[in-house]
Amino acid sequence: MTLDLSKRILTDPYSKAPAILLIGKSGAGKSTLANMLIGEKKFKTSDNSGSSTSSSTQICQSALICLDGEEYNLVDTPGIFDTKRPNDKMQNEIARSIVQCSHGLMAILFVIDFQAAGRYTKEQQTTTDAILKFLGGQEESCRHIIVVFTHCRQKQTEDRFFMEEGFSADLKLFLNKIGWRWVIAPDPEIFKEPNDPVVERNMNDLKHYIRLLPIYYTTELFKKVRIAREKELQEIESNEKKTTNEKIDAGLAVAKHEFRGEGCFPLHSKVILTDGRRIEVSQLSIGDKVCCGEKNGKLIFSEIYAVVHTDNQTVTQYQRIDYLKSDGTEGTLRLTPKHHLFVSQGKTIFAEDVRAYETELLLFDGKKLIPVIPHRVTREWELGYTAPLTQSGKIVVDDILCSCYAVAPPYQAIIDFVMVSFRLYSWIMPISDCNKEIHPYIRYLKRGQWVLEQIDYFNTIIKRL
């Protein structure tokens, strides 16, 4: 759905009102809840979006709302932590949501489709953890969360005690963590009458919970975006040619940079050192030697010579690959979708191209590498990433043989050759500290990525002949 920014971001760009943020999966009913809370249809919903191809709104929307004399910025988000990979348009919408929260968070309305999520699955728990970390950590965000259930049946909506009987143990545990603050957004297909008392009662309960919340809070991310936004707005004021849309999107570039799908490995992924110890990849230091495979029954270790970028706050999307180890226990590898990993033919592929029950990966069983076929491939969001480089260009992570490279077309031997210059550079100028920005020399080398892209293009044509 495409709408002009000024028709969906209704908040004054100069407003400093803290946000009431609606989060949840796409199609959960966030936009419908926003309209209920406002008392009029200001937000576009899937029913009136005019789109026949989307089951839900995939845009950021906002409007000012007044509760007990206090002004807040009500922000409706796209499905921020949906498992599908966000495209550029979706990343822009996510960034706009962050911009609209740059003056702090008063309340986080966690919208859950009860019919689809009443059991509160492991995937939903993982998503919840990612949301809490992203919004300032478990302790702070839990003090501001209110759960809003949608798509509930009539009896569940009318009888709170009957509704609670359907809560799973895991859901009850989560609700206890947030102070048992929950309400129902009545289904408009059931409660159709204007000023329906059931709708009014639930919305009044929601407003009551918001009034009882502590003072609004902020995070380092929101502070950074607010500073950038205020600076850009000052620059816009001095330029008469700037448009309303540019005012609305002030700070967008900084927000988008903080929410991305780049990186390599999650911080908690495990690697194997020469003495057999397994440590988290975030604990690696330059000079450490890690397992990178085996040859003729002998383990091979390779030295870490650089960590090209790392960060513990950026929200990153990972490809989650579940497989069975040789002893029957379940293993899990997480890496960014554009990262390379080895398949049994000795080639490398993108992680996003791994297929359950089809792709043969290489599993380290403690002595040698053996083929393994994953039984589940999904997407997850986590905070943080790190990207270590070994002299061999290979590394065993969570018992799976991976490449150290990403993004460029997966031609391991060619990238190894190209990286010789960086290994020489790091030997002359040792790389001690790294940050979230990719090392400038690697950025320089990426200018030659088009060569690999051309090779990949011609290989694709040849395969089709």
TrEMBL record:
Keyword check for Magnesium: no
Domain of life according to the entry: Eukaryota
UniProt KW Oxidoreductase keyword: no
Keywords: GTP-binding, Nucleotide-binding
Pfam families: AIG1, Hint
InterPro entries, A to Z: G_AIG1, GIMA/IAN/Toc, Hedgehog_Hint, Hint_dom_N, Hint_dom_sf, Intein_N, P-loop_NTPase
CDD domains attached to this UniProt entry: Hint (cd00081)
Protein name: AIG1-type G domain-containing protein
Organism whose genome encodes this protein: Rhizophagus irregularis
